[in-house]
Amino acid sequence: MTKLSIHLVISGLCALTLGCCISGARDKAAPAPKRVAIRAGRLIDGKSDTPIGNALILIDGDKIVSVTPGGTAPAGVEVIDLSQSTVLPGFMDTHTHILLNGDVTAEDYDAQLLKESIPYRAILGARNARIALEHGFTTLRDLETEGAMFADVDVKTAIANGEVPGPRMQVATRAMAPTGMYPLLGYSWELKVPTGVQYVDGVDAARKAVREQVMYGADWIKYYSDRKYHFEADGVLHSMVNFTDEEAKAIVDEAHRLGKKVAAHAIGSDGIAAALKAGVDTIEHGDGLTDSELDEMARRGIYWVPTITVGLYVAPGRAGAWPKMAQLQRDNFPKANKKGVKIALGTDAGGFDWKELNQAKEFEYYVQYGMTPMQAIRSGTAVTAELLGWSDKVGTIEAGKWADIVAVSGDPLKDITELQRVRFVMKGGAVYKNDAH
User: Fold this and answer.
1) Following CA atoms 44, 46, 48, 53 in sequence, which dihedral angle do they give, to the nearest 10 degrees?
2) Domain 35-90+396-434 is found in CATH 2.30.40.10
3) What's the pLDDT at 322?
């Protein structure tokens, strides 16, 4: 399938953001054939310890019906020949910002919030979702709109309705931070400038903010546990905690009461400790994790989403503790893996420009930092599905799951960078990309 022109992106999303629609300008995947079979030369199904050779995957509509080593396609079923390829479950990125396009500097971030309208940012968000899909990411958890209010819900809805192509999504809408503890900052007090988060102060306001976000479509609640990262004489990465214990606990308790999980941006050990005390479900970034915090996360089954790609991307452009933080995270990663911490793939795409880096670079870092290639693949398939509560739907290639399937030419168990060269993408039985010829 060829890439969208700008005209198609804008017109396909106009019903979402501008209240209009240009007839015939929607770009959707071709309807999934009723029954189709994929002949996989090498299948990494997300659950087996070794690949399955010459597997036949039978698909009916949007679901996988069967997976058979060898096997023969039923008469009349269209066969997609991936016999020269490695076939895998669709990738999942559990930390993205589709409404952001790089924020290495404060100027990058401020310009987007001050100079781009929310409808324009939603159009770019749809473009970014398409980029992720073409790279093999069939599912995203988008962790806040960075000042674009609830536009992530709109993009998610447009994708789900088939108006624009993109991954399945879970979204967090507006992240939370106390007043004055998240940009935009530094402008004249006479000006009312937008902020990248929803300011929340006090226990009652925290509960109300959770309720409001859920009302407008949040699947997750995200809050900023800390800021101002610095090393002290003890060698530990410390940070300034944003919320009081009571406020953070109110956010988590109210979210859980409403059936939603909570992700905490927590980089320094102090912010991580506060988030763990509050009862969050995931720690995002987590550069300053200590041994005791890793042990607690392993014991309680709390996920770590390390976002290595963005850390290495922004560190060279930032002063202070940032360069050392990247090395600390590299030191912590193998310890976390050995201790049994659940590590789920997340990149913080949007913190870097979607057009500049392939999210699948994260798999490569995991292998460099001590995972086996199979562990790295599972971190972005089966483990992420578990984090999202979708293990019964995605994450592995087996009967009953959605037909979210990708393929690469080589063997990622020998060269993990193959995952950065996806040649085939299917989501829900519909083919969005097929360069595997």
Assistant:
1) -20
2) yes
3) 83
